[in-house]
Amino acid sequence: MQEYKLFINGEWVSSGTGETFNDVNPATLEPIGKFHKATEDDVKHAVDSAEDAFDSWSSTPAPKRAMILYKTARILEEQKEQLARLMTQEMGKVLKEARGDVQEAIDITYYAAGEGRRLFGETTPSELPDKFCMTVRRPIGVIGMITPWNFPIAIPSWKIMPALVAGNTIVLKPASDTPLLSVELVKILTQAGLPAGVLNLVMGSGSTVGSAIVCNKKLRLISFTGSLETGKWILGEASKDMRRVSLELGGKNPIIVMDDAKLDLAVDGVVWGAFGTTGQRCTAASRVIVHEKILPEFKRKLIERTKKLRLGNGLDDGVDVGPLVNESQLKKVAKYVDIGKEEGATLALGGNAVKPLPGYFFEPTIFTEVAPGMRIAQEEIFGPVVSLISTSGLDDAIRIANSVEYGLSSSIYTENMKNAFRAIEKIEAGITYINASTIGAEVHLPFGGVKSTGNGTREAGTTAIEEFTEIKAVYFDYSGKLQKAQIDVE
Asked: What integer best gives the mean pLDDT of the chain?
C-alpha cells in the first residue's frame, strides 16, 4: 500500500511520530493508501514555513503568480480522467460526477488566474486640491484552510487558487476521508512552479490537526467548509485574537414545485438534487415543497423515477448512485430514517442499507406526509433522503422554505414569472434557481448562504478575491502643504 507524507516547506516529510492512518474505498472497503498523521509540532512547522515564504510570494507581481495558476490549470486538464478515477475510488461519487468535480477545479483555477491582472482597487476624487485617493488590495497573510470530503479537489481549489493569486501563503488540512486528491493537487501546483513554503499540506484528525490550525495565532484567516457546530467553535476561537474567519456550513435546501410547473422537469431536478453525490452536498435538495393540487401525481412520478436509479461502484458503467463516504455517515442516515418514521412521516421508498454490496450503500429514500417542523425537514442529513411537504400556495411554500436555520441554496419550478421573482425576493438563501435543481453552482458567481449557513463571506466568483484580501485606502497629497480633511476652510 502506497504511503503519503506531509508536504512542508517544499518537501514531502514524515510526521513527527511516524503515525499513519488508512484511506478506504467506500464502495469496496479496500484500502487506497497510508497517510501520515500530523502532530501539533508538524502544524507549527508548516505555519512557520508559510510565514517565511510570505514576504517573497506576496512581493511577486500578481501576473507572475497567475502564470503558475495557468500552468496548474493546464496540468489539471491533462490529468482530469486520472484524477476523476482516483476520486471515485477515494470518495465514492460516480465517475461522471467526479469528472465534474475536477472540472470545477480547472474552471476556478483559470478564473483565479485571470484575477492576476484584475486585482482591482478604486479611485475617487479628493475633497481637497492636489490630492489623489485610491484603494489597493493587499494579501491577508498566512491562511489556514480546512476542507471537507464531499468535493475533495473542487473545494480546496475554490479556496487555494484565489488565495494564491492574491499573494497569501497557505496551510491546508483536507478531510481524513479524502486526503489523496489534496496530495495530487499539491503535486500539480509544485510541478507548475509554486515556490517552497507557499502551500503546505498537513493531514490528520480535526481534533488534533484542525485544532492546531485554528488555534495558531500566526494564521490571520481560517477558511472552513464543514459542519455548523465546528464552524461555531472556529468562529469563537479565532475571535479571541480578532482573526478573520470564512465559513460555509451547510444547508437544508428546498425545491418549491408550483401547480403550473412542468412536472417531468421538476422530477428530474429533484432526483438530481436529492440523490446526486448520494445526497452528500451542502446544496442537496432535501426538502421538496409541492403544491397540494399536483402532489399526488408528482409523488407518483418521483417514486417511479427514483426506483430506476442504479446503485453501485461509481467506476462501473450505468451506476447512478454511489456509496456514502464512511460507516459513520451510513449510521447517521439510517438514524434519520428511524427518526422520520417515529415522527409520523410515511416512508414511501427506500430507507435501508443495501446488501450484499460490500460498501456503505444506502437506498435513495423518499418520505411523504412530512410536516415542516419534523427533524427530517429541519436538520441536515447529508444523505440520499428527501422529504415531500404539501403546500397550499406560493406564500405558504416560501414560509416553509424559510422555516429552517440554514439558507444556502433554493429552487422553484414554475412557468409564472411573478412567482419566480417573488421567490427570488422572499426566499432566504444565498442561491436561488428557477426551473433548475439546487445544485450546479458555476465558479464565476459567488457561492455561499445566509443565516446559519455561514458568516457572510462568499467563495468563488466576483467575491473570491474579497475573501482573501484586505482593502487599504491610500491618500497621495502632492500640494506641498498641510491640508486638513473635514476641516472648514477659512
From this structure: 97
